[in-house]
Amino acid sequence: MEKILITGVAGFIGSHVARRFLQEGYEVIGIDDLSSGKRENVPQGVQFIQSDLARPNVLKLIPADCSRILHLAGQSSGEISFDDPVADLEKNVVSTLNLIRYGIENHIERMVYASSMSVYGAVADAPIAENHPCVPLSCYGVGKHAAEGYLRVYQNRLPSVALRMFNVYGPGQDLSNLRQGMVSIYLAQALATGKIEVKGSTERFRDLIYIDDIVEIWFRAATRPAVLGQILNAGTGIKTTVGELLERICGLIPGSSYYVQGATPGDQSGIYADTEKLIKYLGLSSFTPLEKGLEKFANWARQWSADIHPNPSRTS
Ligand SMILES: NC(=O)c1ccc[n+]([C@@H]2O[C@H](COP(=O)([O-])OP(=O)(O)OC[C@H]3O[C@@H](n4cnc5c(N)ncnc54)[C@H](O)[C@@H]3O)[C@@H](O)[C@H]2O)c1
Description:
Rossmann fold, globular, alpha/beta
């Protein structure tokens, strides 16, 4: 049985990706420091190590015979990255460098990295391709771009793929964290109080990708040979305005409404992906329609809200 390492396995995307690899028959070693992830998210069957990847001695805890690294651990909010940029650097860059060292020392076949569309910064209203200049606006985006740079530097000793994920949403997203994840923040507020506070214009636009589609992208990026050395956008190529998203959420949660107040530091006004490379290398071109994805997420969130965590706390 092939053994792989998945970092951030107690988080939203990492736990879904781990579940898929277990289903495909892989042995999964999972690491997470539980700084934002939760132990109960770690799928049954994962051999779990609770540890902080920014500490170099963690490498001794990881079995040497993993074939691949799927690196999803990190601080995942642009807004939070401004609270403590040094902590963000440790979580997103130092952790990646430590894993690169582990990968080289153990002759790991490949590393797939969770990068972000935040690396691009302010862009025009047009599909953004991977060769677009990167001028990130947040400390988070700077860290993601730096991590990509280290992977490029060591590419000949540790082959890698970087996935620049756009806005991922779906069941399993942390509804108690109102500073991370646009769709989950709006949905959580709609369910908790019926009033959605929108930090920034409703004219902003995003590329929203459902979790099942992201899992498929990770599986293909981790297993297809031709993709090594590439940086790929992981988005749908479909532009959705914040206003449209809000209308859809308010339609799903009766009695909810929204109001605009303030702005999020380092926020991009609008971005969506050029998916040509994604189609070329991973062959993926059709995605879960927003309407369907949101409905599934809202059904899950209603259950979460009612049964498990009755009072999501508002931080803003
Ligand atoms: N969710 C999105 O829309 C999105 C978009 C682009 C990129 N990303 C990136 O994808 C990755 C996963 O995102 P997510 O939404 O699942 O976030 P998440 O916060 O749910 O998961 C990240 C996990 O990493 C763990 N972690 C953080 N620092 C760690 C460290 N030093 N050592 C070990 N574990 C650590 C956290 O406890 C958490 O479980 C992140 O790197 C994020 O930046 C996410």
